[in-house]
What we know:
Blueprint: E1 13-18, H1 23-31, H2 43-46, E2 51-55, H3 64-76, E3 84-87, H4 94-101, E4 109-112, H5 123-134, E5 138-141, H6 144-151, E6 161-163, H7 170-178, E7 188-190, H8 198-206, E8 212-217, E9 219-220, E10 223-224, H9 225-229, E11 238-243, H10 248-256, E12 260-263, H11 274-283, E13 287-290, E14 305-308, H12 313-325, H13 327-343, H14 347-367
Parallel strand pairs: 1-2, 1-3, 3-4, 4-5, 5-6, 7-8, 7-12, 8-11, 12-13, 13-14
Antiparallel strand pairs: 9-10
GO molecular function, one term: glycosyltransferase activity
Pfam families: Glycos_transf_1
Keywords: Transferase
Amino acid sequence: MAEKKQAPLNTLLTIYFYHTRLTRESYEEWKEYKFPGHILYGLPLLENYGIRSVMHKCKYFSGRLKLMFYATKEILCCKEKYDVLYATSFRGIEPVIFLRALGLYRKPIVIWHHTAVVTNPKPWREQISRLFYKGIDQMFLFSRKLIQDSQKTRKAPSHKLKLIHWGPDLPFYDHLLAEMPDRKPEGFISTGKENRDVDTLLQSFSATNEELDLYIAVSCGNINYKKILDRYSVPDSIHIHYTDGVIPYELGKLVARKSCIVICCLDFPYTVGLTTLVEAFALGIPVICSRNPNFEIDIDKEEIGITVEYNDVQGWIDAIRYIADHPEEARRMGENARKLAEERFNLEIFSREIAESLLEISNISSKNRTFA
């Protein structure tokens, strides 16, 4: 099992860590192997590089404006000293970013940008957007494809766009597997709630009679999954479980008992399904996945699973049957996935990449501060 911690260094840098989920509680759970550290975007291991974190006190709001008002107030009124604002997304901190662009907020801002930067068709909104991106000192993105698409807009220079090899918290999953010594993986499972193509998923599995456990929210964003699923006459081989804040640890146990993870998504211009994909890496389980060009990982080339074009029911049927009929090949795919996680995509690797960037941006800011 990989080591989870090492002795922290003397503090070289203090960050304000902004997340749109409960951070302190999740961090404490991580210490007990009850929460995966990659969902905290490197926070648990940053202290190993001399980076201390002031954790944002997350609160949930139904409206975006209320969130922005609260988050901005918390950041601007923070009494603890910090050097860099590090955010897992810009949702809620838009006013702070504009203040940075105008020279009224002096701390460097580093964020995760989950999609490519895009051009707005309305000229006045495009001008506002360009001002907005001037307030971001560095953006972390999940793939080179997202970076390349962002560069086309000319809103952010290349030095502001950094690829991070986001991957799973291997010790978390190793600990989870150690608690399941008698597990015998069998069947297919689908988890995740963002932009899932449940129509294609149900049609394909209904035609194969293979066992599928589908864990999904009643609704997410503008999609009401229950309304869609209720239209189908579901065979006994398909089991639908509606989730309401399922704990990642408990869901991980359910996934670990399956022999294949299916990630059937709608066509959206970001890394839909990536969280589920990296969980498959850690657990050493093969995947059948929608062919998302925004992934940094080439699933077919790495031989960790099978990809299928969007909306291709027959392609899904063929892939499901192939995995079911070739258990040894599927097992080899799972082994390749685990090796990929150990060598190229995991919490330790991307935490180091983040730490190096945060320390660098802090040094650049202190030496060449433009807002003295």
